[in-house]
Amino acid sequence: MILTGPEITAATRDGRLRITPFAPDQVNPNSYNVRLGPTLLTYTADVLDAHQPNLTTEFTIGQDGYVLQPGELYLGHTLEEVGSDTFVPLLFGRSSVGRLGLFVEITAPIGDIGFHGQWTLMLTPIRPLRVYAGMKIGQIMFFASVGPVSPYAGKYQAATGPQPSRYWRDVTKLRAVAS
Asked: Do 155 and 169 form a contact (C-beta atoms < 8 A)?
């Protein structure tokens, strides 16, 4: 079951869901609008290595916005910290943003029960696009879970700002287990 807007508001008030800061005007019929935070990251290498940490460059979105360029992957973040120990969150780009040619969070929209923090957004424009800190960039929906819950305690817990891939940590763990 998907939570309706009024239930999202109720769950935020009673603590089953955390959205900080919470703004009632960002509640939709069955989702909550999240805004783009002020920081962007890009990777510096031409070739990324899944088995190693990859260096990034950080940009701050100024008052006049920031122009995203095609062919570049930008890591942004939600302004809001979102999480729940009860509901499964799913984040998608807003259709209005998609109509501007910006792909948001195409490969990893599902969050884990127990994750609390700012969400890293994978942003890929198909043409140059000026974005602004605070713009409504995505919408997050919440689904009721069935069965026992094992809360998320992974490598991105309590994230603030955009987080580069930490896939290499999984590889390190696999190597340790194989040894």
From this structure: yes
